[in-house]
Write a structure and sequence with these properties.
The protein is mainly beta. It is built from four helices and 47 strands. The chain has a 22-stranded antiparallel beta barrel. Strands 17, 18, 21, 22, 23, 29 and 32 form a seven-stranded mixed beta sheet that branches. A five-stranded mixed beta sheet has the order 2-7-8-5-6. A hairpin with a 2-residue loop joins strand 24 and strand 25. The longest helix is centred in the first third of the chain and has 20 residues. The N and C termini lie far apart (61 Å).
Length: 879
């Protein structure tokens, strides 16, 4: 009798089940003779501290998931990134399994910024992130309009006009200082706006009159990560070394009483990484050492007045630093910094009951909030003058002028010579200052509750740069010498620069004020309920008044079953992202020559003008959403289920086009339109259950969560700036005998689109929390898609393009491709190893990608190493 062999995905699932069973047996060996009966319990709101909460206080919130600090740690990847815990939720999508630039190098691991996420099909910069009630969305988004290869993939010259390191958040939140985190992917309340994706809300550790604290330390390095070559043929043609790096992090928090009615919280988190990488062989330094730090400070104060009024004052400081040294240019540095300082004051209290005519308002409560922010993203360069010298050239030219740092005697067979590049691109920065005042009133009315609120915010934003000098082309002599201008640093006796681009300093500034108001009524009549809200937003830049209705109807036929039907509209708040980049100069091209050996003065060849971005008479982009949800407790396992259908249509989305010149060539004037569209549809199913033993045993509980999603997404322009054009060239794709631009191809085939995904988390606790173990499994089912066709001249991550030629443009070649199913498993184990004065000390081991699954990812020849199984080791002490 023959048996069909197990697939790799099936083997991994089987091994996962066996591994968890082994953990259970180890923990209960001492009671092997004792049978353990598991008593089903119903997960309710009070149990949200165990894992995600599918049940919320408001039955209309079927699109809301809540995680506490324990769940954030269990679902995280070992780093202190609070966003990471949400990446396996069914409506959250990160970089797809079809990634063909999945290679990792020393610069990749230095990036400690939070994970960017697509929620309910939106772009990664279309979410609203709120920290202690304060929005922390970046006004720039996370992309630069001038286009640039990410620095960890850059093996040539950088883009001299771009700002690197932009992120959708201004504050980078560490999970170690989060008390509760909430994600809303649909049926959002009218209270929140400015998004087309989802809402992430982080509640940081609060001041408390109970003195308590926590200290955590963790470590990881390249020896704890398994790497394999991810190129199509499994080779390393450019002989790139494996990444060499290390990471560590620590966090601290302390709450304490102050006087009789006040309390304080102090918190700090630091993540640090450092790495070493190779540089071009002619550079004598041989290697470049880099490091990064992500620091976060929290200081909170609370005072309770006797009149049921509480005053809170919270200060946060997010300080990110990452240096980068070029492989291609000797000593070239770009230090990327993201800094955000914020101060929030809040006054909350009760107003009792009030009669408004015949209408009785009861349990009235108010809140007044004021906050200020100072945000900046900066690129700090080692210099603003760039030199592209030659130490040797194929016509027999050679000089020892740069011998201290560049070896011109190396073998350059097959190349034009030995370039000796040095210098930098100049400092540039994006900065903004914000001041916001908000108020809210809540209470009971008629058959339910109401809430209303308003806010006003002023923003001053600017983009600035000190300019640069880009010395690009040289003239050389092997028979004589040149007479250089006095004190010239761009000329030596045998070589001088004949072409350069000079960009002047610039400072683009934009001011805007926006106002918002909302009203929401939540009423219940027996089994039926209706939450009806209306939100209004206005800003004096686009001058649009945007009215967004929010409606959710509920039916609760049994105490354990709720059905919801929602119709909602969400408006974007990206009204300054385009304007802040307007009028950035491209520089002046200059040339000079030598006459009778004397090098002449620079003269202007062409003024390259400025980048212009027009956005007059634009409508605000918005997304309409229809949703259906059901939450119930089944009678067999007594577990909680949640099923949802989400259908979203994005309309009036921003799309960018270049205005053509009369001769048919493309100008630098770019116009923003409302021609973009998007569509997202998904069906999700989630399950949550916790079992506890009926009798005394070493087993505390076993918990299970499951989620699955079928989704489809199409977006006409993946970029905020509307197309893949970056001011220099457009990317074309050839697929099934037809030509597409990148955006046309994404619209035709979908993007961020993995049709069927599932996740399974199993958690167990033994010996009163002395041992906690969890397995987290992610499954991507097989699907048919398209991928770039690598060849001898193009691996789709580099600049070369293959024919056939459509018109006058070379194309990337794409082909149909069947993506196999992929199963990844993460392991998290925490063990109590000691007690200090009765306070537990826990040792934590987290292994990501336990079975070393690469999936369908590939890497380029320039960046060939793909990370597989990796581990984090840490310890935590609480008191």
């Amino acid at each position: 009798m023959s048996h069909r062999p197990l697939t790799r995905a099936s083997r991994i699932l089987l091994l996962t089940a066996c591994a968890f069973e082994a953990l259970t047996l180890i923990a209960s060996t001492a009671q092997a003779q004792e049978s353990i009966d598991l008593d089903p319990i119903t997960v309710r709101r009070s149990a949200w501290e165990w894992l995600s909460s599918l049940l919320t206080e408001d039955p209309a919130d079927t699109g809301t998931t809540t995680l506490d600090s324990t769940a954030l740690r269990n679902r995280g990847d070992g780093s202190d990134d609070a966003n990471e815990a949400f990446t396996k939720l069914p409506t959250v999508q990160v970089a797809g399994d079809a990634d063909n630039t999945a290679g990792e190098n020393a610069d990749t691991v230095l990036d400690l910024r939070p994970r960017e996420m697509s929620i309910s099909g939106a772009r990664t910069d279309q979410n609203t992130v709120i920290v202690n009630g304060m929005p922390v969305n970046s006004l720039t988004g996370n992309e630069d309009p001038f286009g640039a290869t990410p620095l960890d993939e850059e093996f040539g010259n950088v883009n001299f006009n771009s700002i690197y390191g932009l992120h959708s958040q201004t504050q980078f939140i560490p999970s170690s200082l989060v008390e509760k985190a909430t994600l809303t992917d649909s049926n959002a309340s009218a209270e929140t706006g400015g998004f087309q994706g989802g809402v992430l809300q982080y509640d940081l550790v609060k001041p408390s009159r109970e003195a308590s604290g926590k200290l955590s330390v963790s470590f990881q390095n390249d020896s704890m990560t398994r790497y394999e070559l991810g190129t199509e043929d499994g080779t390393n043609p450019k002989d790139r070394a494996k990444p060499d790096w290390s990471k560590w992090s620590y966090s601290f928090q302390q709450t304490m009483p102050v006087g009789e009615a006040s309390s304080l919280v102090i918190g700090h988190s630091t993540q640090h990484a450092e790495s070493v990488k190779e540089v071009l062989p002619q550079y004598r330094r041989g290697t470049a050492e880099s490091e990064s730090d992500s620091r976060f400070w929290l200081l909170g104060f609370a005072h309770d007045f006797k009149s049921d009024i509480t005053f809170n004052l919270t200060g946060t400081w997010s300080d990110y630093y990452q240096d980068w040294e070029s492989y291609y240019v000797d000593g070239q540095q770009i230090d990327q910094t993201n800094e955000s300082r914020a101060l929030t004051a809040s006054l909350q209290g009760g107003l009792g009951d009030y009669a408004l005519g015949r209408t009785q308002l009861s349990n009235l409560r108010f809140s007044l909030d004021a906050n200020i922010q100072d945000n900046a993203t900066r690129n700090l360069a080692n210099s603003n003058v760039y030199y592209s010298w030659y130490g040797a050239y194929r016509n027999g030219y050679q000089t020892d002028a740069f011998n201290d740092w560049c070896d011109s005697s190396i073998d350059y067979t097959g190349a034009t010579g030995v370039p000796c590049r040095t210098g930098g691109i100049g400092d540039r920065a994006y900065e903004d200052q914000r001041a916001r005042l908000a108020g809210k009133l809540t209470g009971d009315i008629w058959h339910g509750t109401f809430k209303l609120g308003a806010a006003v915010e002023h923003v001053n934003a600017r983009r600035k740069g000190e300019g640069y000098v880009y010395n690009s082309s040289t003239t050389r002599t092997t028979t004589g010498s040149y007479v250089c201008p006095a004190d010239a640093d761009d000329c030596i006796p045998t070589q001088f620069f004949s072409t350069r681009v000079v960009q002047p300093a610039y400072d683009v500034e934009v001011d805007a004020t926006k106002a918002e108001a909302f009203f929401e009524l939540d009423q219940k009549w027996g089994e039926f309920g209706l939450r009806a809200g209306l939100r209004a937003d206005y800003n004096d830049y686009l001058r649009n008044l945007d009215i967004a209705p929010r409606l959710v109807a509920t039916w609760t036929p049994t105490p354990s079953t709720t059905l919801t039907l929602g119709a909602n509209r969400y408006y974007s708040a990206d009204f300054l992202t385009y304007a802040i980049h307007d009028a950035v100069p491209r520089g002046i091209t200059q040339r000079r020559t030598a006459t009778d050996g004397a090098v002449g003065e620079w003269t202007t060849l062409i003024d390259n003008g400025s980048y212009y971005y027009s956005q007059g008479n634009l409508r605000t982009p918005y997304t309409d959403e229809l949703s259906f949800g059901a939450t119930w407790t089944d009678s067999v396992t007594d577990g909680t289920w949640r099923a949802r259908i989400i259908d979203r249509h994005g309309k009036d989305q921003f799309a960018g086009t270049y205005e053509g010149r009369a001769d048919g060539s493309r100008s630098l004037y770019r116009r923003l339109t409302n021609d973009g569209t998007s569509r997202y549809r998904s069906f999700t199913l989630e399950y949550e259950k916790k079992w506890q033993p009926r009798t005394q045993s070493r087993l505390d509980y076993v918990g299970l969560t499951f989620s699955g999603v079928v989704a489809a997404r199409k977006v006409s322009a993946e970029s905020y700036f509307g197309s893949s054009e970056n001011g220099e060239a457009m990317e074309f794709i050839w697929y099934k005998d037809q030509s597409y631009t990148r955006d046309e191809f994404d619209a035709a085939t979908g993007n961020f689109d993995i049709p069927v995904r599932a996740a399974l988390d199993v958690t167990g606790s033994w010996n009163d929390g002395g041992l906690i173990a969890g397995l987290s499994t992610g499954v991507t089912f097989a699907y048919d898609g398209a991928r770039c066709q690598a060849s001898s001249s193009s691996n789709c991550a580099e600049s070369d393009r293959d024919n056939p030629v459509y018109g006058t443009q070379p194309h990337l070649l794409f082909e149909p491709f069947h993506y196999d199913a992929v199963v990844t498993v993460d392991l998290n184990v925490q063990a109590r190893i000691a007690e200090v004065r009765g306070n537990p000390v826990m040792l934590e081991l987290k292994i990501s990608n336990l079975f070393d699954e690469r999936g369908n990812r590939t890497a380029s020849s320039s960046n060939p190493w793909i990370a597989g199984r990796s581990g984090w080791l840490g310890t935590t002490m609480t008191w």
